Amino acid sequence: MNTMYSSTSTLHIDVLDVNDNAPRCVVRSHVVHVAEKWANNALLTCMVAVDDDDGDNGRVTFGWDVSHRNEQLPFRITPSTGCVWLTGLLDYETRTTYNLSVEVSDSGRPQFSSICNLVVHVHDVNENMYAPQFDTFAKEMKVYGRHGAPP
Predict the structure, then answer these.
(1) Which of 4, 36, 41, 106 is the most buried (most CB within 10 A)?
(2) Considering only the top CATH level, what class is 24-123?
(3) Residue 28: which residues within 8 A CB-CB, separation 6 or more?
(4) Phi, psi (deg, nearest 5) at residue 115
(5) Is the pLDDT reported for residue 21 higher than 90?
(6) Which helix (H) or strand (E) holds 116?
(7) Quick one: pLDDT at residue 139?
(8) Mind giving me the DSSP string for 33-71?
(9) Domain boundaries defined on the chain
(10) Is the pLDDT of residue 16 over 70?
(11) What is the pLDDT of residues 44-64, one digit of tens each?
(12) Which among 18, 2, 78 is positioned nearest to 54, based on CA atoms?
């Protein structure tokens, strides 16, 4: 006599994500136009990047590329959001354009990164828009020719 036996079991399998994707910039090159007299702490733009990995492998942070880390920039970038803020004075007569590289990194192991570009064009503001103003001490005076003799 042949007796058949059978049983069933439920098996739950979790597939873990491997960090196999680098973050990528939604817009590879941001271009911003700003007047030289913009207020300090003004928001210029927010960089956006995505990573197709899950969890920490897909969580991105933003920072200046190594080529800008020692440079005194009039900007700061918020690592968690990619938002770029004005933190210093802009002067069109000193510098008209900033070509910046923003590094976007994921939090996986191994860590992957990509570069987004940010170009900030500084526009001139007419500092001489108004006629000169004089304090009340200025008086009308006459200047005579040689040796103080009237003309």
Answers:
(1) 106
(2) mainly beta
(3) 116, 117
(4) -115, 130
(5) yes
(6) strand 113-123
(7) 59
(8) EEETTPPTT-EEEE--EE-SS-GGGG-EEEEE-GGGTTS
(9) 24-123
(10) yes
(11) 999 999 999 999 999 999 999
(12) 18
pLDDT confidence tier of residue 120, bands split at 50, 70 and 90: very high
pLDDT value of position 34: 95
> Identity (one letter) of the amino acid at 11?
L
What's the length of the chain? Answer: 151
Residue 43 tokens, joined: 């928001």
Q: Tell me how crowded residue 47 is: count the other CB atoms within 10 A of its CB.
A: 21
Place of tokens 């005194």: 72
Strand 29-35 and strand 60-64: pairing? unpaired
Nearest Cα residue to 112 out of 47, 57, 49:
57
Residue with tokens 């969580």: 59
Mean of per-residue pLDDT scores for the chain: 87
Residue type at position 50: V
